[in-house]
Amino acid sequence: MNNSDVRIVEVSPRDGLQNEKTMLPPDIKIALIDRLSATGLKTIETTSFVSARWVPQLADAAEVFRRIRKVPGVTYPVLVPNEQGYRIAREAGATEVSVFTAASEAFNRANINASIEESLQRFAPVLQEANAEGVKVRGYVSTALGCPYQGEVPIEDVVNVAKRLYEMGCYEISVADTIGVGTPAKARAMLHAVAQEIPMRALAVHFHDTYGQALANILACLEEGVRVVDSAVSGTGGCPYAKGASGNVASEDVVYMLHGMGLQTGINLDMLVATGAWLSAQLNKPTASRVTKARTTA
Ligand code: HMG
Ligand code: MG
């Protein structure tokens, strides 16, 4: 990857849909992923192999994963919370998975019913099996800039959890502002501290746009050196166990900004906009992407 290349990790089929009350049928999810695959995106987080009781929207994970068109050169990671999820994901054909924990105890308890330490212990066999099977594992650190229960989250807690995941064998660590409360200087300071322990090329940023700070935070982190950015078309998203969290930063807006800065993504913005507009129509709600709004309203 060239230093002027940025990889977008498209999370709309997973983060984007997991909190949606309108239950989408598998065919629509498959159509979404297939459309995204045609835009030039290289990484599409496809679904979650979690408990259907906890996230009913993604109960069809295995069917969706099996039926999507796997485009060569595109990877389709899936979220797994434990070994059980890992095994089901593998049976469905997954070749890359993401594990997820947080920098704050209370959020982790609400989200996966485990302490941070317990969650890391749950991931140990996942990483061992994945390593033996040649499956790549991505790690998320939620609440990296604030927690809905605890409020402030010390930077050293983010660094410690990120480091543990990296040492366990995650190839990439995505530091996440789950509830979208961060501001640019804080985001940059957090990323800077994490990058003292983990090479910048193995880091990604994941911003929710609750307070309208996401693009500014991404810019600050790009200036700090990050080159992997998570986002979701139409600005969909939010964690059901993070009260007050709104959608992810919209992929269309991120790509527009990156291309305007001369950074390459390999993504066709027109196709991304069309896909975002199509998704918001399926969800019967207005897009949260400013670029899509600007380009699709007469
Ligand atoms: P639990 O109830 O504590 O677990 O849930 P358990 O081990 O007692 O199992 C309870 C039941 O779930 C059992 O079934 C298990 O078999 C089943 P029962 O015997 O009652 O019929 N089960 C599973 N079923 C399917 N797939 C599995 C699985 N594991 C157990 N993998 C558990 C613990 C982790 C399962 C639960 O808390 C869970 O699924 N949580 C997922 C929550 C979630 O997906 N949150 C959103 C994603 S994280 C996020 O959005 C943040 C992120 O975007 C970054 C950011 O923005 O910060 C990544
Ligand atoms: Mg998220």
Plain-language structure description:
The chain is an alpha/beta fold. The chain is built from 12 helices and 8 strands. The protein has helices spanning 12-18, 26-37, 61-67, 83-91, 105-112, 116-133, 155-168, 184-195, 214-224, 251-260, 269-283, 290-296, and strands at residues 7-10, 43-44, 78-79, 96-102, 136-142, 172-177, 203-207, 228-231. Helix 9 links the parallel strand 7 and strand 8. Residues 15, 176, 178, 206, 208, 237, 239 line the site of magnesium ion. Residues 6-273 form the Pyruvate carboxyltransferase domain.
Separate helix tally: 12
| Ligands present | 3-hydroxy-3-methylglutaryl-coenzyme A, magnesium ion
Report the biggest beta sheet as strand number plus sense, adding barrel if it closes: 8 strands, parallel
Strand content: 5-15%
Principal-axes shape call? globular
Q: Helix/strand/pairing class, anyone?
A: alpha/beta
Helicity, as a percent range: 40-55%
Low-confidence stretches: none
Strands in their spatial order, largest beta sheet: 2-1-8-7-6-5-4-3
Mean pLDDT: 97
Number of strands: 8
Using the CA coordinates, give the radius of gyration. 17 Å
Q: Could you give the distance between the termini?
A: 38 Å
Q: State the order of secondary-structure elements, H for helix, E for strand.
A: EHHEHEHEHHEHEHEHEHHH
Keywords: Lyase, Metal-binding
GO molecular function, one term: lyase activity
InterPro entries: Aldolase_TIM, HMGL, PYR_CT
Protein name: Hydroxymethylglutaryl-CoA lyase
